[in-house]
Design goal:
This protein has 14 helices and 21 strands. The chain is an alpha+beta fold. Strands 14-18-13-17-15-16 form a six-stranded mixed β-sheet. α7 (293-302) packs antiparallel against α9 (342-351) and α13 (448-458) runs antiparallel to α14 (463-480). Belongs to the bacterial solute-binding protein 5 family. InterPro entries: Peptide/Ni-bd, SBP_5, SBP_5_dom.
């Protein structure tokens, strides 16, 4: 049993925290919500598959212990309160009472222990890494869970969201082959909506969970996720009234302004704070002349990122200042100068080892916006005196070329998961640079000093100490320019204005439909 005298007295969250966004009046019950989902998810079993579409649908079926507001502050979900010990090594969660899974079985601390210590350790690569910091899990009663860490791990309080730590029903999965359990086809969680039907290539249908533990919620009766492969057809589906919500990335950016001008249409770029999608160009630091920091700095100063934001992304998002998104904890925008300065770029290039070599630009094959962006970068670099070529590729080819390090510059964007220890260090740590993955330290950036700082900062209990460490890290990395940082991407969610409150946490539509209501 945990000695609670070692715990801090402050309770960090209460159970019934209200939705974060304005609701424009008293919520109304009833109605059908029609949403685009693209691409079609390979599975809805969120403990096994974590790609974007699976998280979007699965986030209304499964839940975790916490949710996170737009400032990444935790609030209660399946946990009604929690405490953290003064030494940062013990986390005690008090679970809500009266919660049941969709099949009617009670949700208890045994499900938390099974989910975190068994199922996710085996099946979820990101969670397996986080759980390496956990020494043991105690369940002193059905509604108390205690995590005992080996050492302080600052980001730990930020991992309890459905895409990372979904609560899996122990009574269905214990002792089974997780990947081949037949229940994967009819997912069962504790969430506000229950799985009903999946017509492959057409739609996924969820229905209201009448036994949901929050009285009166969810407000809508059902949700249809419509599978519409073509971006232009998705835009038409909204224009004709077939769908009510276009999640971020559903339509081409050049269509956003036209759709936004329609009657009864609202738009927001909120709901991406936890993911913090940051775009950059990988720089192959092993290839000459890109191993020359002056060449990398010339490229950095030679690219007009404000133009990309205004002309290609419709003014949404922000120009990046370095390796951290401004929504990520411990972000500091006062990094060394990387602003657009073509004259400075030309001078740096003249002083560098660049000798007219052709630089290969690997575009990201995610639609016309990204193709135009590659063309804009090619133009920018030609204007400072570099010779470049764009290498065409499909998604499979892009994955292979980046994994094999077969590029000079390669467009990408990655999620940051709210904390630099969760989503940033992986792309800069020297021991995470082996070829074979498009998601690790693809640039092969090697800096023993920042490696040491990353390792130390993740284990600091004090937020103030972590902030100082990550400030130093950001400055050192930006000075080295191992990658060419572009934009904090703005992925707007477009929706009917009579659909109220669709984006109300840092995860956007991935877990927001609990609080949605339709004003009709």
């Amino acid at each position: 049993m945990l000695n609670t005298t070692k715990l801090t007295a402050a309770v960090l969250a209460l159970a019934m925290a209200g939705p974060l966004a304005a609701q424009d009046g008293a919520p109304k019950s009833g109605g059908t919500l029609n949403v685009v989902i693209q691409p079609e998810p390979p599975s809805l079993m969120l403990g096994l598959v974590q790609n974007g579409p699976t998280q979007m649908v699965g986030g209304d079926i499964y839940e975790s212990l916490l949710r996170y507001d737009f400032d990444l502050k935790p609030e209660g979900q399946l946990a009604e309160s929690w405490e953290i010990s003064e030494d940062g090594k013990t986390y005690t969660f008090k679970l809500r009472e009266g919660v049941v899974f969709h099949d009617g079985e009670p949700f208890t601390s045994a499900d938390v222990e099974f989910s975190m210590d068994k199922f996710l350790r085996e099946s979820h690569s990101r969670m397996r890494t986080y759980m390496e910091h956990v020494e043991s899990i105690e369940t002193p009663d059905d509604h108390t869970v205690v995590f005992n860490l080996k050492q302080p791990f600052g980001p730990f309080i930020g991992i309890f969201e459905p895409g990372t730590a979904p609560m899996i029903p122990k009574h269905i999965y214990e002792g089974t082959d997780f990947a081949n359990n037949e229940a994967n086809n009819t997912p069962i969680g504790t969430g506000p909506f229950k799985f009903d039907k999946w017509e492959k290539g057409s739609f996924i249908h969820l229905v209201k969970n009448d036994d949901y533990y929050m009285e009166g919620k969810p407000y809508v009766d059902e949700v249809y996720y419509h599978v519409i492969p073509d971006a232009a057809s998705r835009a038409v589906a909204y224009e004709t009234g077939k769908v009510d919500v276009l999640p971020g990335g559903s339509v081409e950016n050049f269509d956003v302004a036209r759709i936004q001008a329609m009657d009864n249409t609202c738009i927001t770029d909120k709901g991406w704070e936890y993911f913090g999608p940051l775009s950059w160009m990988w720089v192959n630091n092993d290839n000459k002349p890109l191993d020359d920091v002056k060449v990398r700095k010339a490229i950095m100063h030679g690219i007009d990122r404000q133009f990309a934001k205004d002309a290609l992304w419709n003014g949404l998002g922000k120009v990046s200042t370095g390796p951290l998104s401004s929504s990520t904890r411990f972000y500091d925008g006062e990094t060394p100068d990387i602003t657009f300065d073509p004259e400075k770029a030309k001078t740096l290039l003249e002083e560098s080892s660049y000798d007219g070599e052709t630089i290969r630009i690997l575009g990201l094959p995610y639609g016309e916006t990204w193709q135009r962006w590659a063309e804009a970068v090619k133009q920018n670099l030609s204007e400072i005196g570099m010779t470049t070529e764009i290498v065409p590729s499909d998604v499979a080819g892009w994955n292979q070329k980046v994994a094999d390090r077969d590029f000079d510059l390669a467009f990408t964007y990655l999620y940051q998961y709210g904390d630099p220890a969760l989503g940033v260090s992986r792309t800069y740590m020297g021991d995470n640079a082996a070829p074979g993955s498009p998601w690790n330290n693809v640039a092969n950036y090697q800096n023993a000093e920042t490696d040491k700082l990353f390792a130390e900062a993740a284990l600091m209990a004090s937020p103030e100490e972590r902030k100082a460490a990550y400030k130093e890290i950001q400055d050192k990395i930006v000075e080295d320019v191992p990658n060419i940082w572009l934009l904090e991407l703005g992925f707007p969610t477009i929706y009917r204005c009579d659909v109220k409150n669709p984006v109300n946490t840092a995860f956007g539509v991935n877990d927001g439909f609990r609080d949605v209501w339709i004003d009709k």
